[in-house]
Amino acid sequence: RAMATSLLRVPPPEELLRPLAVPERLLLGPGPSNVPRRIQAAGGRQLLGHMHPEMLQVMDEIKAGIQYAFQTHNRLTLAVSGSGHCAMEAALFNLLEPGDTVLVAVNGIWGQRAADIARRLGANVCELLKTPGKYFTPQDIEQVSAGHHAEGTSWPPAWSPSLRVTQGLVQHRPLVLFITHGESSTGVLQPLEGLGELCHRYGCLLLVDSVASLGGAPIFMDQQEIDVLYSGSQKVLNAPPGSAPISFSERARTRGSDTGPTAPGCARGCWTWGLSSSWRRRWVQGKPTTTTTEQGQREDTALCSWRCAWAASDATEKSPPAMSLCPGSVLGSPGAVGLKRARLPTITTVRLPDGYDWKDITAFLMDNHGMEVAGGLGPTVGKVLRIGLMGCNSTSDNVDRVLAALRDALKRCQRSRL
Ligand code: PMP
Which metal ions or organic cofactors does this protein require, according to UniProt (predicted)? Predict the structure, then answer.
């Protein structure tokens, strides 16, 4: 043993020997949001074996929970072990092959991200561009010009060489349309009415990101004819990050089935889905096979949390927040990014008043009020603050707290007169 110890060149980290200190914080940014006690407790429970009947039951219950939350009967409905980004990647990866055309609606950072991933997959990416703060109409998506961006802004982003802002389904005839329901970088809620039917008229699949909206704004996957829908756990669901619900319609599954097992993804050519993990296989085919213990164990904690998240998320919590911030009341006028209608109920963007540095305000809130509020993201950096009121955090008490804290910040943070 002495000899083995003498071979160690990296000392044991002192900091890991100390107990973990986690401060109490009110997480009112765009996510993660606070986790209620019941879900915290689920995360602290002992693991189950991945093939134990209780575990399989938990997985079935989670699937039922996602079907309920998405309002879908899709069989291929599961929780991906990963973040919202992971679900975005899984959705695109399972729908697209090199050379396929995807139309991406870009009115904030999430469309940009999707376009970026699709490009890396070798897809032919066509972007439908809209000024951040605006949403797409069915006409925009079908064929009419969507590119009303203001001159002199950093929009469109410089990396976007193949910008074709004026063309939609009619011209591109894409295999997939990607659109974001809750654009958390700008605070816009995209109306989805009619988009599924429109896409299907053009033989196109509708892929929707609902990471920032699920549970806070109504979404009806089957009725709205959405083909692939994904979300995340760390926003309205108030569960820890790291598991992301996703669902594929029968149309999305059968679309590429002629490509068989050579398809890079799993849902497309569907029988390959689930080979890596028993719980996925169970959900798709009802026949569990063996998987690695590590994988099974990794799922347990996340899935137990999920199980409780669903149980805890009753009708009251799933309706839009009863109290939403009045953006004009504290930080200047509403419409921080040109937004008049379709405000996202979960994440409110408020304009940064002239002369303030957003970093001073967010740091002040953290240091003096133990509260997280975020600055802008992508096209809204330096222009807005983003305030999240999601799930158990969406209370009138928290509205009062954030308004009082912001008032305090405006009084005490330095304001440049220039
Ligand atoms: N899509 C949207 C609309 C989001 O708001 C976010 C997270 N802010 C993501 C995707 C990515 O989710 P995650 O941070 O869990 O990777």
Answer: pyridoxal 5'-phosphate
Tell whether 397 is covered by a domain: no
Instruction: Determine if ligand 1 sits within 6 Å of the CB of residue 30.
Output: yes
Residue 224 has pLDDT above 60, yes or no: yes
Distance from residue 311's CA to the centre of ligand 1 (Å): 23
Whole-number Cα distances in Å, 118 to 83, 280, 346, 363: 18, 24, 27, 36
Query: In CATH, what number is assigned to the domain containing residue 89?
Result: 3.40.640.10
Nearest residue by C-alpha to atom 6 in ligand 1? 211
Residue 388 covered by a domain: no
Task: For residue range 81-135, list pLDDT tens digits in order.
Answer: 899 999 999 999 999 999 999 999 999 999 999 999 999 999 999 999 999 999 9
> Which domain range does residue 72 map to?
37-314
351 is in an annotated binding site: no
Supply angle C-alpha 301, 303, 308, rounded to 5: 100
pTM of the shown model: 0.84
Alpha-helical regions (H) of 255-395: 278-285, 293-312, 315-318, 358-369
Q: Residue 166 has what pLDDT?
A: 59
CA nearest ligand 1 atom 14, residue = 84
Instruction: Among 179, 184, 208, name the best residue to mutate to test ligand 1's pocket (greatest count of ligand atoms within 8 A of Cβ).
Output: 184
Q: Is the CB of 110 under 6 A from ligand 1?
A: yes
CB 95 within 8 A of CB 260: no
DSSP summary character for residue 378: G
State the total domains in the chain: 1
**Which residue has its alpha carbon closest to ligand 1 atom 1?**
211
Q: How many helices (H) and strands (E) does the chain have?
A: 14, 14
User: Does residue 386 lie within any of the structural domains?
Assistant: no
